[in-house]
Structure formats: structure tokens, C-alpha cells
Task: inverse folding
């Protein structure tokens, strides 16, 4: 799982939707505080359409001791939106893997207070 999570973060930073989508199961879902619940393919299309640059600093990787298919990454995200607005925050992404080692669900956790106003100006 650690390699998958590291690949995920590197691909997120690079804006590499194809690599990210290949990490997810066919019906993989993202639960995001800004975008809502979306199929992974739709979420990453929307995110990368809204993004000019991402800089990610990995802080921690966690694996559940009670649920072997659950892991999380804790990272700092510096996000430049397509309108030029910049924001940064710490986030935790919680991953639920299927029996084939694909991500079936990911929940993004962070405080959107600094980000929401810049995000809402994208529309």
C-alpha cells in the first residue's frame, strides 16, 4: 500500500490523471469536502481542470491495525487554482482498498475555511 500511496501523491502533484485513475477500481469513489462524492474519473478531471499547480509535501503514511485494507496519507498541499488564487492546507486522505489492491474509496479530510472562497470564485 505504501508504494501505491506514494505513487498517488506524486501523480497528484504532477497532474497525472491517467496514473491516478489506474490506481482506482472501476467504480472508485472520492468523497471531497469541496467537490462532494464523485466517481474518481470525474473528480480528477474536475480537480485538474481547476488547478494550475500543486506542491505536495508528504508528512505521514498510516495503515490501520484493525482494518488491513485501510490506509491514510497526511500531507501539506499547496494549491494554485486556475484563476491564480493560492492556498495551502494540511490534509488527510483515507483510502479503502479492494481485494485486488485497487482503491475503491477515498475520503479527503481538511479544513476548507481558507480554500472555499477561492474555490467558489472559480464558477
Result:
Amino acid at each position: 500500500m505504501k508504494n501505491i500511496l506514494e505513487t498517488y501523491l506524486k501523480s497528484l502533484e504532477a497532474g497525472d490523471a491517467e496514473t491516478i485513475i489506474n490506481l482506482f477500481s472501476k467504480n472508485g469513489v472520492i468523497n471531497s469536502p469541496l467537490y462532494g462524492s464523485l466517481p474518481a474519473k470525474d473528480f480528477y478531471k474536475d480537480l485538474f481542470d481547476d488547478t494550475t499547480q500543486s506542491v505536495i509535501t508528504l508528512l505521514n503514511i498510516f495503515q490501520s491495525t484493525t482494518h488491513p485494507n485501510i490506509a491514510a496519507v497526511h500531507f501539506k498541499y499547496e494549491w494554485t487554482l486556475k484563476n491564480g488564487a493560492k492556498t495551502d492546507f494540511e490534509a488527510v486522505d483515507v483510502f479503502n482498498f479492494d481485494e485486488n489492491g485497487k482503491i475503491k474509496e477515498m475520503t479527503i479530510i481538511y479544513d476548507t475555511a481558507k480554500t472555499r472562497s477561492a474555490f467558489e470564485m472559480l464558477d
Observations:
- The longest helix spans residues 2-14.
